[in-house]
Amino acid sequence: MLSTVAASAYEITCAAPRVALGDDPADNNPVVRVDVKFIPEEHSWRVFHYRQDGLVVSRSEQYAIQDASTDNKAQWQGSLNRARHLYMVGEVKRIDGAMVYLEWLYDRKKNNQLVMHAAARCANKTTQASVESTMWFQVPPYASNGILNVRRGPGVNHGLVGVIPAGQVVSASRCVPRDDGTVGADWCLVTWNGITGWASQAVLLPLQQESAPAPRIPRPTS
Questions:
Q1: Among 110, 127, 114, 36, which Cα is nearest to 76's?
Q2: Burial of 221 (C-beta count, 10 Å sphere; 0-12/13-18/19+)
Q3: For residue 24, is pLDDT > 70?
Q4: In this predicted model, what pLDDT tens digit does every residue of 179-210 receive, in sequence order?
Q5: Is 212:142 a contact under the CB 8 Å cutoff?
Q6: Which of 59, 93, 112, 166 has the highest CB neighbour number within 10 Å of its CB?
Q7: How far is it, in rounded angstroms, from Cα 46 to Cα 13?
Q8: What integer pLDDT is reported at residue 143 of this predicted model?
Q9: Dist CA 23 CA 115 (whole Å)
Q10: What's the gap between Cα 87 and its chain centre?
């Protein structure tokens, strides 16, 4: 069952996208999380891809985003700034009862051929708090110096509580915006082996979505 999402304001956070076309098997720095915020009154889209190395890519910086939403769909379109023949469509839909963020990339030089499409399962940030106690993450095996620093508060301005070795699984009760004055990912209150403190969500790999089936990827809503 597939339905459109009306263009009302929302803020969602999504698991790692599943790429159905255009995936690079040699990519050793995949996207592990996507955040999407849409304000229809301002025709404003903010889409952030969080990479495995902790860096954050803004779709708004990559593409000349234009709001293409209607009363029956929430969608943006835009040409890639550094290669204008490539253009992307991003959209939020409900598929089989789940909220999904989708992206399609087309090449005008190839007669508008579809060259990439991907989908990520999402949840409203406003409703995430009710399920936060069930969140589980893994400290990445590639973590810097083989450890994850855990701090007393949600930002690098707080002192260290302890460290967690790379590869370990931690639970998280909630995630909040960082308070150190830096723009970036939320920080989560994590617990492992008697250690409880805050760590950046950008360097935590979500586990609860790993076994979820990949959502079907439909065509963009016209």
A1: 36
A2: buried
A3: no
A4: 877 777 888 889 998 899 999 888 888 875 44
A5: no
A6: 93
A7: 12
A8: 81
A9: 10
A10: 20
**Closest alpha carbon to 10 in 45, 48, 34:** 45
pTM: 0.61
On the 0-12 / 13-18 / 19+ scale of CB atoms within 10 A, 26 is exposed
C-alpha 13/C-alpha 10 separation (Å) is 10
Q: What is the 3-state secondary structure (H, E, C) of the chain?
A: CEEECCCCCEEEEECCCEEEECCCCCCCCCEEEEEEEEEHHHCEEEEEEEECCCCEEEHHHHECCEECCECCEEEEEEEECCEEEEEEEEEEEEECCEEEEEEEEEEHHHCCEEEEEEEEEEEEHHHHHHHHHHEEEECCCCCHHHEEEEECCCCCCCCEEEEEECCCEEEEEEEECCCCCCCCCCEEEEEECCEEEEEEHHHCEECCCCCCCCCCCCCCCC
Q: Region of 111 please: left (phi>0), alpha (psi -120 to 50) or beta.
A: left
Tokens 């950046």, residue?
A: 200
d(C-alpha 182, C-alpha 13), whole Å? 19
